[in-house]
Amino acid sequence: MPSAGAAEIGPESDFCATANALEPGEELVMQPGEYRGPCIIKRGGRPGAPLVIRGADLNNRPRIVYTGGPADVIAVKADHVTIRGLALGPTSLDADGIRVFARANVVIEDCEFNAVGGIAVAATHNSITGLIVRRNVLVDSGSTGMYFGCHEGLDCVISGLLVERNFIRTVRAVAPEIGYGLQVKLNSTGIIRDNVIVDSKGPGIMVYGGRDLLGRTLVERNFVMGSQTSSGIVIGGGPAIVRNNVSVMNREAGIGLEDYAGRGLLRAIVVANNTLYRNGGGGVAVPSETHLRAVTIVNNAASAWHGAPAFPRGRVDIDMAGNVDCTWALCFANPEGMDFSPVAGSLLRAPGAIRAIEGIPADDYFGAPRPVPPSAGAIEKGRGFIAIGPKR
């Protein structure tokens, strides 16, 4: 039901004009149906009183329709704005879904993006603090699904980013575009957790790191499967903690560390308690000729594919301990059925290594508490199969 201070409209109304007439703390409630786009949100809320644009029914979302050329279906150019429960797409290859130009406190949640030709969710113009993107569904994207920050990390930096519980399935991109599931560019930092990303062209998740050590990105409890050309999770720089992820059946590694553009940012990285299965380039892959600094790879479980190594060979610049090579050992209950629980008697039942570093997880992929020390892999005990859909 609409709250006090809410304007409720149907598809015959101009939703954009109505939204831009709202006062801080008010909300626009949109009944099911098709509404005409594009729209620029020019008026926002204030701290503690956001302007809210939402669908009335999450089971029958209002759809914003735009079939024209280059544009953003919704451009958010005001701070303290929440967009909830809308549907966007299909669009042309030149049209993006929701693009954020704001500088503070924007929430995009419970939305559906279907066959958006451009980027579904983008924040690539201004620095912003407090961007939250959660519980959205992206299907059949014609470009990168979610794009946060600026390429060189100078013109815009995102801090306080939270990307969680999104479901991204099938990302394609016309060459030379990479087609990421989601990416966080240089010097932008945040939390990427509990997302399910399946069938991307490029990496499911890529984090580029930062030039200083003040910010850090946490990548945890994500399920990534089926990158066509790359690793499931790519870390182009730190500081970063990558833990409790399940990354399977990707073209290259389950988790790949890459010295992107020779920036020399592969430092202050923890890769802990991940489960990696049948990835073409191995479990955890690191560049052989790049010097690493303060990189820890601990308590991971990996089953390699086609002769690829499960883990890097011993190196003086990597702290490795407690990792379990499951290539020729029975470790998982039913991996082809997406059940990566430790099977009875497997090596994953043994306690893992202890390291006095920040980043060793206190819970597992399903949020179940872990003992001290935790066992290897992302899943501590039998929890059943992983569903290919939104993580609940």
Structure commentary:
It is a single chain. Helix content is 1%, strand content 38%. The chain has 392 residues and is mainly beta. The protein folds into 2 domains: 1-156, 3 Solenoid (Pectate Lyase C-like); 203-385, no CATH class. Strands 1, 2, 5, 8, 11, 14, 17, 18, 21, 24, 27, 30, 33 and 35 form a 14-stranded parallel beta sheet that branches. The chain starts with 5 loop residues before the first strand and ends in a 50-residue tail after the last strand.
Short structural summary:
The chain has one helix at 15-19, and strands at residues 6-9, 27-30, 34-36, 39-41, 51-55, 63-65, 71-76, 81-84, 87-88, 95-100, 104-109, 112-114, 121-123, 128-134, 137-141, 146-148, 158-159, 161-164, 167-171, 182-184, 190-193, 196-198, 205-207, 217-220, 223-225, 233-235, 240-243, 246-248, 255-257, 267-272, 275-279, 284-285, 293-298, 301-304, 318-321, 324-325, 332-334, 339-342. The protein is an all-beta fold. It has two domains: 1-156, Single-stranded right-handed beta-helix, Pectin lyase-like (Pectate Lyase C-like, 3 Solenoid), CATH 2.160.20.10; 203-385, no CATH class.
Q: Report the major sheet.
A: 14 strands, parallel
The total strand number stands at 38
| Overall morphology | elongated
- CA gyration radius, whole angstroms: 21 Å
Q: Summarize model confidence as the mean pLDDT.
A: 95
Secondary structure category = mainly beta
Contiguous uncertain segments of 5+ residues: none
Number of helical segments with 4 or more residues: 1
